[in-house]
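Hi R.,

Here's the chain you asked about this morning:
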Amino acid sequence: MDRRRFLTASAAAVAVASPLDALAATEALPRRPLPVPRGGVIRTAVAIGEGVNVIDMSGPWETFQDAAVAHAAGRFELYTVAPAKQPVTASGGLTLEPTYAYANAPQPHVVVIPAHNGTSETVAWLRRVSRRAHLLMSVCTGAYVLAETGLLDGRTATTHHGSWDDFASTFPKVHLVRGRRFVEHEHVATAGGLTSGIDLALRVVERYLGRAAADETARYMEYTRARTPGLVS
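And the predicted structure, written out as tokens:
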């Protein structure tokens, strides 16, 4: 999704209280474990490109990095990937140099898709790696990029609250869910705006390493997990 389009939609929503502020009491999510790969290394790719939102990528990055405090059986190996190995400009002017280009990136177990200007190359790479990946997760309007792959067709999904109506009209085959921090399926998941990516990343830690590891990670980060965080489908 075009970054300017995202900012315009977000600004229009500022005057309205976000439905995320009115979530109900705590809901326990069911167990849906993911297998820790042999060797204990969970390869985690963060897809970046021009206009990538910093907290969309850094929130999950920090979460997966900090999961090491739980001393669990697996660890997340993080890297960035983009169409080419040349610097991209993130939100606020931050410059990032991708670890890999699509052509030579290792096959990931997890892919994080933050809000950014995805290209046809991005969509093709996501479709390719999805065949062997455990999970593809979008954050904020990264849901637009994920939806372009067709992997959300016929499924529920969410995105930033300022883009709900536009997303629903752009992707009529996807069933938009409003007012949840994230929406999860077996192999794809979508988070709402910005910090919602942290909640979804903690859920991924939980699926791989267990609830205690996710709670320990959240405590280390001094992050309070949302009540009614997600919808599991």
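The domain at 38-82+104-232 is CATH 3.40.50.880 (Rossmann fold).

Let me know if you need anything else.
M.
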